[in-house]
Structure prediction request, 916 residues.
Amino acid sequence: MSFQYTILILLIPLACFLINGLVGMKFKPLLSGILGTAGLGIIWLLSLFTAYTYFFQVGQVNGEFQKIVVINAEWLRFTDKLHIDMGILLDPISVMMLVVITTVSFMVHLYSIGYMHGERGFQRFYAFLALFTFSMLGLVVATNIFQMYVFWELVGVSSFLLIGFYYDRPSAVAASKKAFIVTRFADLGFLIGILVLSYFTGTFDFIALTGSDQSIFASGAAASFMGLSALTWAALLIFMGGAGKSAMFPLHIWLPDAMEGPTPVSALIHAATMVVAGVFLVARMFPVFFFQAPAALELVAYVGGFTSLFAAIIACTQFDIKRVLAFSTLSQIGYMMLALGVSGYGGHEGLGYMAALFHLFTHAMFKALLFLGAGSVIHAVHSNVMQEMGGLRKYLPVTHLTFLIACLTIAGVPFLSGFFSKDEILVAAWQSNKFLFAVEFLVAGITAFYMFRLYFNIFWGKEKTYAHPPHESPLTMTIPLVLLALGSIFAGYLPFSELISSDYKPFETTLHLSVAIPSVLIGLAGIGLAMLFYRRESTLPDRIAASLGSFYKVVLNKFYIDELYLFVTRKIIFNYISRPIAWFDRHIVDGTMNGIGWVTETSSQKIKGLQSGRISQYGFVFAIAAVGLALVFIYFIN
Amino acid sequence: MIEGIPMQHLLIVSLFMFFAGVCGFIIRKNMITILMSVELILNAVNINLLVFNKYLFPEQLQGHFFALFVMGIAAAEAAVAIALIINIYRRLNSINVEEVTEMKY
Amino acid sequence: MALNQFMFYLLAAVIMVCSVLTITSRRILRAAFYLLCVLIATAGIYFMLDYQFIAGVQLILYAGGIVVLIIFSVLLTSHISQKFAKPGLARVIPGVLAAVAGFVLSAMTVLSFPFQPSGQPAIGNDMRTIGLQLLSVEKNGYALPFEVISVLLLASMVGAIVVAKKEKSKEKP
Prediction:
């Protein structure tokens, strides 16, 4: 079975981007939307077909999944050994990501026809969505780390463009700049990491890097810098890039602000696909981390665990529903990172690896559903703030139902997909690190609490007065909700451990009741607490908040991390680094240029009298010069 | 060759005429006078050509012919210059070179 | 003093005086008249140099053609009684300076330069020789410049007509 057609999965979104981007403004908005959605529909089907053929027909040879390089064209050649290629690599994780990305992207495209209806720049929106989809797909099928880096940046650019979609709002512009600068800063680390890694190993290729031949790492392991081996540094720097894109602490600050973008964008980019690129990156490089840089892998685990707790606590205090979801995303990505960090290699040891990608898959479904549901609510009441909502279950039945399913899924209620994937993560954590397990166990409860705080605040509670009665969203918006809800329910029944594993060999997993039962109980406890607090209008939450006093205030302000960053950048970087550089630029660099300009201008002012246009003056100069020249040539030269 | 007249005397006359023309070109403002100065200059050159021909190279007629061509060119130049002057006068009602500044800068 | 010497110095004096007057006269018609005197005196010098043909051309073309043309244009563009203002010092000084400097330099050069006549026997410059050489393409033939000049004259004639004619488009838009 040839997979040559997979190139279309990349080319169709690119074509959609080019068509909508170049001539889209000539189309009717709806046509442009339908074009984009149809393109995505095609590649969605292609991806599903690819996944089916890969996983169930040809991918597995002798009990091991193959890495199939469909296309690999040399793009830039540095030396005979070191060259950058562009190609398509199919292996279990990239195929799974294809499915995730095209599914969510297709849903978002469909949903946006309704959600973005009548917005200015509708065609531009679709062009950017297609660009993003193209870049993200290129990222996951990359055959080498440099191709991944190229698409990584493209993803960053499309995220920037989409966050700043409402470019007439200063807050959106600020948010897009913030997202771009923070992720770009992290990508600097990624790039340095790539260079260090490729310097020592002499290759960019994933198959070589993750293959069984460990000899290429010998020189890198031998070289050391500040007590750590060069490969550990490379892995840490690469993880820095992943942490920036996945908004891990302390580079998480851009993600909550990124909610300024349109809600479907948040669903696609900032919940389901782009922000898990960091997880994907670590998973892709997993053998390098595990065998060559275990210290870096341990750091991944702790950063993931800390972020998940930290973000979950903040999520309990936020009032903007999209921000709650953003912090929830942070927390869930922290889960995935943690699972990768505690994972071993091969068979049951590699449970964490499988669990991380399993959670990535289910999370993409239910978090996209949550965002799209939130978008539907926002569409109905024209507000982001949960105090202005309440009792909406009567007006938005479909949204209510699907939102409830998503909340139950993320809370880990049994037999929904989130339950299975979260269970695997907790088991993996239990097996390797009891402390991190305790953290995750706590986070599971907090997650249930804040999700149901959100749910009850929106759909229950006291009914507010609305400017006009809220109404259910159109079909283009509810169909994706329903489809994603089905995905959230049933995604957990996929035999994931038989498809994806750290060493590409299927293995069996069973439900670990000793972990599952307590985690379900703490989830239910969180739900119960939320019901107690928020089901009816009550003053209990406020009293608790008051009793927590300053701690509550600190959490409400997101632990003042943004302020800390501002302090560091404004007070320290701006004052002590940027100011002198700016001074140098303004006075020395510009001064030189201005000086040249000044000299030219002044001298031309002085000599412009020469070009008076007066014929007598010209005649005089001509005659005198002729006499002078004659004098020189006749009497002085000879 | 004029008996008893050295060649230098003729040349001095022509030089005087030439520099009178240069001087006139510089000090006059009226375009027609400037044109007259130019005619003086051309004429001085003609004298030179003929004198050199006569005194130094009597065996050929090069100077003679080139004086002839210079006259032809002078005639052409005078015709065009006067056409221009008349056109300028018609538009600007002046033939003062100082005032013809419409297309300057 | 032989008569031809006397004649030469007379003509030289006329040329010098009249050329100075040409450029200094403040009445334009007089300037044109002085120019005519210069040109005629030049023609006299040509006669004395034994160049009858070119002297004739000088009389016909310069004195008869160009000066008449100039006088016509003077009449078209100026009042006869109009007197120019005295040129300012800012013009006179550079003009005189350039002229005097150039004249002194050139005169010194001319007077000190050892001119070497070729000493060959003179060629006749009767009309026959002139006509043959003018139309010859052999050695000592001037057919090419002759033709070029004729094209130039034609072009300048056409140009002069085009430049000087009234524009009709202004009247009939």
The mean pLDDT of chain A is 84. The two ends of chain A are 92 Å apart (CA to CA). The interface with chain C takes residues 616-617, 619-620, 623-624, 626-627, 630-631, 634 of chain A (CB under 8 Å).
